[in-house]
Write a structure and sequence with these properties.
The complex is a heterodimer.
Chain A (H helix, E strand, L loop, with lengths): L2 H7 L2 E4 L3 E4 L2 H4 L5 E3 L38 E4 L4 H10 L2 E4 H5 L2 H6 L18 H4 L3 H6 L2 H12 L4 H11 L13 H5 L6 H4 L3 H12 L5 H12 L5 H13 L3 E6 L2 E6 L2 H9 L5
Chain B lengths: L4 E6 L2 H11 L3 E7 L4 E6 L8 E6 L5 H10 L5 E4 L3 H10 L4 E8 L2 E7 L5 E7 L1
Parallel strand pairs in B: 1-4, 5-8
Antiparallel strand pairs in B: 2-3, 3-4, 6-7, 7-8
The chains are: A alpha+beta, B alpha/beta.
């Protein structure tokens, strides 16, 4: 069972590495959330707000923020006292564990006695959750995990002018003005997010996912050939490349450079969030 | 009008000749010393008087970025006809050739793409 699944089913989750974020909408439930957020990789200074041990806080307009437990080698998030409510909330929680921030500190984590049992992939939520908004795949591939970790406090304090251009570039929206990006997180980022539904709206993007499921790890050339051959889509290579970018920003696809080649891989992990949100009731 | 010669840029002509003849199975047609570089062509043994492939030095500064961009997107620079792509894939992969696209059947055509070790991706294709 993955940490995300255990979170959905239980009242607490413990993961051995990475960052843990809680989505803003949990605040509106009026349920107190307490817990400890720490990181084996960077035990201090990189969690959104506050650096002392203690309780997870809420801030207006910001996601529920974490505090650092310096000595904890694990991430622990516990929900409210009332088990019923906690259970309810847990189903609505958006939790993202960003593996990249921990990768750079993997050796540190191991030195702390942390057993790394699995790599945890971000699960962007369909709501306006911070994780879904901020760390686009492309940002991660261009920048190391430590870049992301060190910038996170700035971003979460809603002061992110330095990131404007990069974010805009990453999201492919040149029309967004700086003014749009200096307001509160949920307002600013909601215009930039590529959510999972948008990502799978276009038939071409679904076709790309279909072909990657049929054979994972394809070059752009092969994907183009398959769309033409099997889906009768006469799209330009540039158009397909842009579709791939959208899928990548939604976390459904990842591209990996291998020497001089670049291959594309499907990642269905974000789709699991849909099942978690709307469990089978039939 | 017909095509009698086409070319691929190669990093190293001697290495390219070895790969195109010993691994792929072409035969050398011309090797003319041009002072440092060679006019170096190979042909298919199945068609010795047919289209020649020129193995051209890649020292022009534009060649590097051009080929890197193509290789990154998996785009082949030339396409050769074979009787059976699956069999060729098996044979070449066995000889250590790296494929960026394994055999893919699209209707009557089967294609695959491999790295020629000289800086290019090459497609092989067969038709039913």
């Amino acid at each position: 069972m993955s940490p995300l699944e255990s979170l959905v089913r239980e009242d607490s989750v413990q993961v051995s590495r990475g960052w843990l974020f809680v989505a803003p909408q949990t605040r509106t439930n009026g349920v107190a959330i307490r817990g400890i957020v720490g990181s084996p990789a960077q035990p201090t200074g990189s969690v959104p707000c506050g650096e002392s041990d203690g309780v997870v806080e809420e801030e207006d307009g910001c996601p529920v923020s974490g505090s650092v437990k310096r000595t904890s080698p694990t991430l622990v998030l516990q929900l409210a006292d009332d088990p019923k409510r906690a259970s309810m909330v847990s189903r609505q929680l958006t939790v993202l564990v960003d593996e990249t921030s921990a990768v750079s500190g993997e050796e540190t984590a191991v030195a702390h006695g942390v057993e790394i049992t699995e790599r945890i992939h971000p699960v962007p939520h369909t709501h306006l959750s911070l994780p879904a908004l901020l760390p686009t795949r492309r940002l991660r591939t261009e920048r190391s995990g430590s870049w992301w970790a060190t910038r996170l406090p700035q971003i979460c304090s809603c002061i992110f002018e330095p990131q404007c251009h990069r974010l805009r570039h990453a999201c492919g929206q040149s029309s967004v003005s700086d003014a749009d990006l200096t307001c509160k997180l949920r307002l600013a980022y909601c215009q930039l997010v590529t959510d999972i539904f948008q990502a799978i709206t276009a038939p071409a993007r679904r076709a790309i996912l279909d072909e990657l499921v049929a054979r994972d790890g394809q070059t752009l050339f092969e994907l183009c050939a398959r769309l033409t051959a099997f889906h009768e889509m006469s799209l330009s290579r540039q158009a397909i490349s842009q579709h791939i970018d959208v899928l990548e920003e939604a976390g459904l696809l990842r591209s990996k450079r291998q020497g001089r080649y670049k291959f594309h891989y499907v990642d269905t992990a974000p789709l699991q969030a849909l099942f978690a949100r709307w469990p089978n009731r039939s | 009008m017909r095509i009698h010669l086409t070319s691929v840029f190669v990093d190293d002509q001697a290495k390219a000749l070895a790969f195109y003849t010993e691994v792929l199975g072409f035969v050398k047609k011309n090797e003319i010393d041009l002072g440092g570089a060679f006019w170096l062509t190979v042909v298919s043994p199945e068609d010795p008087d047919g289209t020649e492939l020129l193995l051209e030095p890649s020292d022009h500064p534009a060649v590097g970025p051009y080929r890197d961009a193509l290789v990154s997107d998996g785009i082949p620079l030339a396409s050769f006809a074979v009787d059976d792509v699956h069999a060729e894939h098996k044979r070449l992969a066995g000889a250590g050739v790296v494929f960026t696209q394994k055999p893919m059947e699209a209707g009557p055509v089967t294609t695959a793409v491999f790295d020629d070790t000289c800086g290019n991706l090459i497609q092989i294709a067969s038709q039913d």
